[in-house]
Protein: ABC transporter domain-containing protein
Organism: Nocardioides dubius
Amino acid sequence: MGGLVEVTGLTKSFGRQNIWHDVTLTLPPGEITALLGPSGTGKSVFLKALIGLLEPEEGEILIDGVDMVSSRESQRLELRKKFGVLFQDGALFGSMNVYDNVAFPLREHTKLPEAKVRDLVMEKLGLVGLAGQEHKLPGQISGGMKKRAGLARALVTDPEIILIDEPDSGLDPVRTSNLAQLLMEVNAATDTTMLVVTHNIELARTLPDNLGMLYRRELVMFGPREEFLLTDHPVVSQFMSGDPDGPIGMSEETDHSTTDVDAYDEFDLAGQPGGATALLSRHAGARPIEVLPRQLSPRTGMPRAGGDRHRERVASGAARLYVADDEESDRERPVPTRGLATRALTGVGDLFALALDTIRETFKRPFAARETLEQFWFVVSVSWIPAMLVAIPFGAVIALQLGTLTVQIGAQSFTGAASVLAVVQQAAPIVTTLVIAGAGGAAICAEIGTRRIRDEIDAMRVMGISPVQRLVVPRVIACVLAAVLLNGLVSVVGVLGGYFFNVVVQGGTPGAYLSSFTALAQISDLWVGEIKAVIFGFVAGVVACYRGLNTAPGPKGVGDAVNQSVVITFLLLFFVNFVITTLYLQLVPGKGA
Ligand SMILES: Nc1ncnc2c1ncn2[C@@H]1O[C@H](COP(=O)(O)OP(=O)(O)OP(=O)(O)O)[C@@H](O)[C@H]1O
């Protein structure tokens, strides 16, 4: 039997915007439930809250008795293994073909031989009508095909609870009907608990056992289809008839505030098929609610355990229709908001937490070695040319400036040591990491941000896979290794540039340049440059990943994230450089001091 989901008093806001409050409902095990509501009423947000991808401010979500809201992330990863989720746009991983996308959860969570994986993947692809398309990348298939591939991936592990966000978007009417029929067959075969978020009235009438509707920041109605579909509630009846006239308008803000049933005239439709009583709104053009439509049944003729249990609950009176209190819904609720300082501190705390998680997850198995190498190669390939091009003029400027200064104070013989130390300890690590942050870090942030807005990160978390281990650790290690490698190269190029300008342009002698270095510098002076490169590379990688993972929705969100990632990294690098340099000069006495 499928999992039991019990939601109590759930409230969610974004900043000052309250999405919904005090939502209480139960998804009975093995039954199909549909969640309806006009656009923007928070149906997708509700779905994401159920699987712990968004934090509600209040309430609890019990999954077979375990609270998702108060669980730690590691517990949530385990709880989420009970779920299969189909996101609005499919959330396929863009770098994998359809076959690998569907095989992904099996390869991650089972030790099945590849032949068995192949059988299961091809079976699910056949179910959703995608056999023969398995080699295509998500960018090469239509929106509807992505949706079906996403469904195959959600089904492949035979989850206990399936959440489906708008199954009909991107599908033509025939495929939508086929998909509804498929969900019914899957439910009959597996007795899985299902929650379907939809606008599709036909789907809502014929598929679910229970229905709920979100409107004006609350759950206006929830209960068995037998009562919900024949309700006289003005909001629900308008929505279910698709009528333009009624309390629901173009936007939540301008909608009529009343959902009062008494504002509508009642008509007895005794002569209508089924003899149902229906309501007609006073507004012109309104259509009465129909008689209870026939529910889909499995074509295979297989009995549906969830459906039988549902009928028993209805017959015994245990399944009751919940209707929200109209006065309660109009009450203004203060939304708790956080000040600028609190938000800034929370951001710093979250960044620090990600840095600690990255260190911890680096030692967890399996280690994504291939991804790390690919990222390392990527960061080096986009950073090395700009790093070299910056290193030459940087080394030259330092050599010229110090050469002039040492002549002015009569210490020309120390020019070599001063230039080399300035390049190796200060210029090289900073130049290297600024270039890595600007080139590699920006690209990493944009890539993770794009994955985030396409729901790929959420899809990963839903499959019980930690994005920190899978995405952040390889990228941070790649930035660290690239920083160490490029720091060495930039140091050599900078020192050679300094030698050229000091000896060739300023007329210094090669011997004096080299001997002053050995007289004043020590081996730890060289090491500190590499240690800085490690720390700066880590900072650049973590900040890029942090901003990517917290990208706001839309292309603008990605642009802002990249911009902030580079700016934050620059600020942090100069601050951390100041701290390390001060500590080093305090703790390690200079040679001859
Ligand atoms: N991560 C987020 N940050 C801030 N606001 C968000 C976020 N996600 C959703 N919202 C806001 O929450 C509200 C509800 O969004 P949601 O996508 O859940 O609506 P919906 O009912 O699923 O709409 P539709 O049917 O059009 O998909 C919208 O105003 C949206 O802008």
Summary: Confidence is low (pLDDT under 50) at residues 256-288. Residues 5-229+292-330 form a domain with the Rossmann fold fold (CATH 3.40.50.300).
